[in-house]
Amino acid sequence: MSKQTIHADNAPAAIGPYSQAIKVGQFVFLSGQIPLVPATMEVVDGDFAARARQVFANLQAVAEEAGGSLNDAVKITVFLTDLNNFAVINEVMAEFCDEPYPARAAVQVTALPKGVDVEADAILAI
């Protein structure tokens, strides 16, 4: 199977040597998204919920460019610098994904790119 690069102009540009997503067959592997506003490449203003929503909005933009949506997600991984934000992530994810929800892992990490406190990636089946 060949690999197809997915690039969404309405999602943040990659800040390293990686693609926003790669599609192989029916699967799309979305790279981690942090709460960058695509137009400015700056971290979104607001509280943790606003940052989490920006992360999921960025994932949604890439998913749509690939021909799907976050409702096609089969696995999402969320990286948090503080697991005390777990309940907020649950609320925000439910805004972007319908039941049945995808499999998910939430992992606390020491640090994330650009000093943000949340990042998420996803695998879609479309």
Please give the structural blueprint.
Layout: E1 3-6, E2 21-24, E3 27-33, E4 36-37, E5 42-43, H1 48-65, E6 73-80, H2 86-96, E7 103-108, E8 118-125
Helix pairs in contact: 1-2
Name the CATH architecture. 2-Layer Sandwich
The poorly predicted ranges are: none
Assign the CATH topology.
Answer: 60s Ribosomal Protein L30, Chain: A
**What percent of residues adopt helix (DSSP H or I)?**
10-25%
> Domains counted in the coordinates: how many?
1
Ends distance = 15 Å
Shape descriptor? globular
Task: Provide key terms for this protein.
126 residues; alpha+beta; 60s Ribosomal Protein L30, Chain: A; two-stranded antiparallel ribbon; 2 helices; 8 strands; globular
How would you describe this protein?
This protein is an alpha+beta fold. The protein has a single domain, classed as 60s Ribosomal Protein L30, Chain: A, CATH 3.30.1330. Helix content is 23%, strand content 33%. The strands form two sheets. A six-stranded mixed beta sheet has the order 1-2-3-8-6-7, covered by helices on one side. It has a two-stranded antiparallel ribbon with strand order 4-5. β4 (36-37) and β5 (42-43) form a beta hairpin. The protein is globular.
